[in-house]
Write a structure and sequence with these properties.
- The chain is an alpha/beta fold and 238 residues long.
- It is 26% helix and 26% strand.
- It has one domain: Alpha-Beta Complex (Spore Coat Polysaccharide Biosynthesis Protein SpsA, Chain A).
- The chain has a 7-stranded mixed β-sheet with strand order 5-4-1-6-11-8-12, sandwiched between helices. It has a two-stranded antiparallel ribbon with strand order 2-3.
- The chain is globular, with a radius of gyration of 17 Å.
Length: 238
Amino acid sequence: MKKIDAVILCGGIGRRLGAITKDIPKPMVMIGNRPFLDILIEHISSFGLRRFVLCVGYKKEAIEDHFRAHKSDVTIVFSEEHEGKLLGTGGAIKNAESSIKSNRFLVMNGDSFLSIDLGRFLEFHDKKRAAVSIVLTKAAKRDDTGSVRVSGRGEIIAFSEKDGIGDEVYMNAGVYAFDSSVFSHIPPDTLFSIEYDLFPSMVGKGIYGYVVDSEVVDIGTPERLEKAKVFLTGVHKR
């Protein structure tokens, strides 16, 4: 695990949080006395990962200054988007290609937390010889997300937007394992989404879903942020 890079997407503006993200990027929102991003990195590093590539954009100085001022036992590398040039999630990953050193790597959203065993997830990815593996959770409790359908052997067979919510439908949990071959599917210096542009194009080309019974905790809205504070403060105290 030490030789696997973890890429965290930190460039979003976070408009739905209003004044909370006026001066800081969403991953730097405080949970207790710590930025959310600190908690996320601590969780990932507990599985042995030691190298992190942070894809930064909006208010990137807040993230960079924080990690340069605080000593850590992990390596932090910054992949910067150019000011005023939106790249989307896929474009940000492509922009970070030269910074990512491992042949397979994890990708996570910088505004959500999922309590899963990352070691087992990577074992699944390797066993399937997947180009992309996506962690999936039950979608029944969310009506604001697209649905993902998988075959009996775990291969993703379809994506659809905000429909079919039910017991046999899953949602994208925002945690991914990528093989470096995926870079060839993402155009350079272009606004490109992994969720809407890359993943649907990978159906039938080695994209798999890893289903877990865990709830996604995100900080995307004021209401979810308050719930996240309660959950993550409890996790940190355990």
